[in-house]
Write a structure and sequence with these properties.
Layout: E1 4-6, H1 7-12, H2 14-24, E2 27-31, E3 34-39, H3 42-52, H4 56-61
Parallel strand pairs: 1-2
Antiparallel strand pairs: 2-3
Length: 86
């Protein structure tokens, strides 16, 4: 079988789509003839993630700073209620 599946066929035969992906590699899912998604085995996906993750050396030598992920976002301040004096 080809590696292109229509969305209706992919939904109806998902187990077969999964097995084909594991045996033959990435499978493309189309909607109305337009490629919309790809089902890939998890080991293939993890290899792709590792290839796109920069190394420490690349981060340190990059011309622009990458500080957006250094600290977690702060929570909103919780204010105590103002005491009422008589």
């Amino acid at each position: 079988m080809d590696n292109v599946w229509q969305v209706q066929e992919a939904k109806a035969r998902f187990s077969e789509l999964l097995e084909t992906s594991l045996a033959e590699g990435p499978q493309i899912v189309t909607r109305r003839g337009v490629e919309k998604a790809v089902l890939v085995p998890i080991d293939h996906w993890r290899r792709l993630e590792q290839l796109t993750r920069p190394t420490l050396k690349e981060l340190l030598l990059a011309p622009e700073p990458r500080t957006e992920d250094l600290a977690p976002p702060r929570r909103p301040l919780r204010r105590r209620p103002v005491p009422k004096f008589d």
